[in-house]
Amino acid sequence: MNTTQQAPDATEYRRILLVEDEPTIAGVVRDYLVQAGFQVVLAGDGFTALRLAAERRPDLVLLDRMLPGLDGVEVCRRLRAAHRVPVIMLTALGTEDDRILGLEAGADDYVTKPFSPRELVLRVRSVLRRSIPEFSPEPSIEVGGFDLSPAARTVTRHGRPLALTAREFDLLAFMLRRPRQVFSREELMKAVWGWDYGDLSTVTVHVRRLREKIEDDPTRPAILKTVWGVGYRLDPSDEEETAGADL
Fold first, then answer.
1. Domain ranges in the chain?
2. DSSP string of 232-243?
3. Looking at domain 141-245, does it have CATH number 3.20.20.370?
4. CB atoms < 10 A from the CB of 57, how many?
5. How many angstroms separate the CA atoms of 162 and 84, rounded?
6. InterPro entries from the entry (predicted)?
7. What CA–CA distance (Å, rounded) separates 28 from 21?
8. Three-state secondary-structure class, residue 97
9. Quick one: which of 55, 118, 207, 234 is 20 to 30 A from 185 by CA?
């Protein structure tokens, strides 16, 4: 008899706040999440979602784009202002502009309706795994004024803590481990998001958001640079050399 025990999934029993005003969709998604081992808290509008997020402290929020009273984009912005909880946006609007709007509001990921509930569960697990601290011997990364701890999932720049979303953290960690290497958006999507294909604007928006948090002037990036026609490169020492030249 095989007595090997499977290691527990770190995402099990995590609390999901599902914000969906369509009862049929909410019921189906809730059932799949519960079967997958999650706790589920339901909200049918934006104001209720914000209240429950403060009271129940969910590990992840599944947020419908179109909500009564307060739409999902505004809910996402307010969540981001108060919490670091990962957000996956559910949207029936399939345009690129709408997806970018959600990502710029702070969403970590998005799923377009209609969607497979099984695929949604996989997306939830993927985002959660990246947001849950890993207790591993992986060393901290100290490069160009950044001090990033993979285990604690914290990062500072010149001693100042940076409030990053799960995807922003993973993107910065990936680039800090490989300074001065150029990566295309396709390569970053596969390495950071784990997707072999997808909407490349997801990468573009996250780079823009990350620049707003690590650059002195995000409109003239000196750290996370664009290599035109190729992709992006992280040059963490450039600002150090510039600062030294002024002394």
1. 15-131, 141-245
2. EEE-TTHHHHHH
3. no
4. 12
5. 11
6. CheY-like_superfamily, OmpR/PhoB-type_DNA-bd, Sig_transdc_resp-reg_receiver, WalR-like, WH-like_DNA-bd_sf
7. 13
8. helix
9. 118
